């Protein structure tokens, strides 16, 4: 693995999850692996969990950390090759990526979809630009179309808590007042397709994910039908892929206590942050079935595993 860009970089999901569990048991077992190594973290968008869990992971491996909130503090970047830079952009990705590579040993980047132009977002120009010109490994801390660190965390959380050999896992769309990217849902679907689970997705008409993501995963437009006998319910809003960026506040899709009764006393999952009583009702988030806080802890071990694999190769 040269970079950790997508779920496709996880070559053996069972083994990765077992290794992450081992790191959770002994987080300081590789405390010297990252000695004199620096993790650079560039944020084009806000974060709580990704930023702190990845820092914690790096600290567990003995790394130094440098962080920059790029959107507020960096030069406006140009990504197009051969362009005459006489407009708003001050620095080309070619120089920026090579310069940062001289200061760090691993580079982690967060850059969300802008949700204006689907083709542009799905080109992943920021992550692809850094991977093209950086001379060090790059980690995706949520890009325009994927959040693989979250998906690895989610897989670890499901394997830790499952009581059935092949649990039923349902990803359900939920309402949201703001247009959110498809990144978390895209990566969760790709991750579940790699696990031995009975997986389905449910959403209202118009919120279909890209065909290249869904593949042959069953899709239900009837949320109640999808939730029947679910062992894990993963709740997440995403804006439309077809009518790109369209959102909806259809409260009929809020995950409530009544809907959880349809399930097999399912565990609740959400990547956080979550809008209470819009996406998920208080009674469900505050119930014993909620894994959201434990899930957030697992972000550390997913990030630590990825960092460890990249450092092991250096
Ligand atoms: N789940 C997640 O990525 O959280 P943050 O946006 O707070 O990093």
Automatic annotation (TrEMBL):
It is an enzyme of class 2 (transferase). It comes from the Bacteria. Homotrimer. Coiled coil: none annotated. PANTHER family: ORNITHINE CARBAMOYLTRANSFERASE, MITOCHONDRIAL, ORNITHINE TRANSCARBAMYLASE, MITOCHONDRIAL. Transmembrane segments: none annotated. HAMAP family: SOTCase. N(2)-succinyl-L-ornithine binds at residues 142, 176, 236, 275. Pfam families: OTCace (PF00185), OTCace_N (PF02729). The keyword Transferase applies. Carbamoyl phosphate binds at residues 47-50, 75, 110, 147-150, 271-272, 299. Keywords: Amino-acid biosynthesis, Arginine biosynthesis, Transferase. Residues 2-160 form the Aspartate/ornithine carbamoyltransferase carbamoyl-P binding domain. Catalyzes the transfer of the carbamoyl group from carbamoyl phosphate to the delta-amino group of N(2)-succinyl-L-ornithine to produce N(2)-succinyl-L-citrulline. Is essential for arginine biosynthesis. Residues 184-307 form the Aspartate/ornithine carbamoyltransferase Asp/Orn-binding domain. It catalyses: N(2)-succinyl-L-ornithine + carbamoyl phosphate = N(2)-succinyl-L-citrulline + phosphate + H(+). Pathway: Amino-acid biosynthesis; L-arginine biosynthesis. This is N-succinylornithine carbamoyltransferase.
């Amino acid at each position: 693995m040269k970079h950790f860009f997508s779920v496709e970089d996880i070559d053996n999901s069972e083994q990765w999850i077992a290794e992450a569990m081992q790191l959770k048991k002994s987080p300081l077992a590789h405390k010297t692996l990252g000695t004199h190594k620096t993790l650079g973290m560039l944020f084009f968008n806000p974060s709580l969990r990704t930023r702190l869990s990845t820092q914690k992971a790096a600290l567990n491996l003995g790394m130094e950390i440098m962080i920059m909130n790029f959107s507020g503090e960096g030069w406006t970047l140009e990504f197009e090759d051969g362009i005459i830079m006489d407009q708003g952009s001050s620095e080309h990705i070619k120089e920026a990526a090579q310069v940062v590579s001289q200061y760090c040993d691993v580079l982690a980047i967060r850059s969300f979809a802008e949700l204006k132009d689907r083709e542009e977002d799905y080109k992943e120009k920021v992550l692809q630009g850094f991977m093209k010109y950086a001379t060090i490994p790059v980690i995706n801390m949520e890009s325009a179309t994927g959040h693989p660190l979250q998906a690895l965390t989610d897989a670890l959380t499901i394997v830790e808590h499952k009581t059935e050999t092949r649990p039923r896992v349902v990803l359900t769309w939920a309402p949201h007042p703001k247009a959110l990217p498809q990144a978390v849902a895209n990566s969760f679907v790709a991750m579940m397709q790699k696990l031995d689970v009975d997986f389905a997705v449910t959403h209202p008409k118009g919120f279909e994910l890209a065909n290249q993501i869904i593949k042959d995963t069953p899709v239900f437009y009837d949320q109640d039908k999808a939730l029947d006998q679910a062992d894990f319910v993963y709740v997440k809003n995403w804006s439309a892929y077809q009518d790109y960026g369209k959102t909806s506040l259809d409260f009929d899709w809020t995950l409530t206590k009544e809907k959880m009764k349809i399930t097999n006393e399912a565990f609740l999952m959400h990547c956080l942050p979550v809008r209470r009583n819009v996406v998920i009702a208080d009674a469900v988030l505050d119930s014993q079935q909620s894994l959201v806080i434990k899930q957030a802890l697992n972000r550390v071990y997913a990030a630590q595993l990825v960092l460890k694999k990249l450092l092991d190769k250096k």
